[in-house]
Design a protein that fits this description.
Length: 160
């Protein structure tokens, strides 16, 4: 017979899933006023942060099929959000660059993200917020199988 888990860790997966879902839902509600879907925002953020990224790498980062990224990029290019360029070393490879329009929107979306994060963290002290972030970083480290996610690399660099 399994022991009862009194420390709440038996709910960890549900809590993380629900928190991510609710933050995404709030972000979509606030971010939609800028005229992009959540998938387009995710792609835009990746492109701005990793100028010259390949389509294949974008698919990996976004955890979607390459054909889905290609279609999304088609729409983003038509809207003037991104620019595709041939790799000078391999003509089969397309590199993705943000446009000025994307860079401006990225600044706006940082404000939306800050709004969502502040709403999510309301009621937590500065120390509790730092503990939460450190705990989540440890959780990601423990489960990443040697792969360090881009966000975590950036956070570690900022902490150094």
């Amino acid at each position: 017979m399994p022991l009862m888990n009194l420390d709440g860790t038996d709910r960890l997966g549900f809590l993380i899933h629900d928190a991510a879902r609710l933050m995404r839902k709030r972000f979509e509600a606030l971010g939609s006023r800028h005229g992009l879907s959540s998938a387009q925002w995710r792609l835009l953020v990746r492109v701005v942060k990793s100028e010259g990224v390949t389509q294949a790498r974008l698919a990996e980062l976004l955890e979607v099929e390459p054909i889905s990224v290609s279609r999304l990029l088609d729409r983003m290019e038509e809207g003037g959000w991104i620019e595709r360029r041939q790799d000078l070393n391999d003509r089969r490879v397309r590199l993705i660059f943000p446009t000025d329009k994307s860079r401006q929107a990225f600044e706006a979306i940082k404000g939306v993200a800050g709004e969502v994060f502040e709403q999510a963290l309301t009621g937590l002290s500065t120390a509790e917020r730092q503990t939460l972030i450190r705990g989540l970083m440890t959780l990601v480290d423990n489960l990443s199988d040697g792969e360090v996610p881009c966000q975590q690399q950036a956070m570690k660099k900022g902490a150094a």
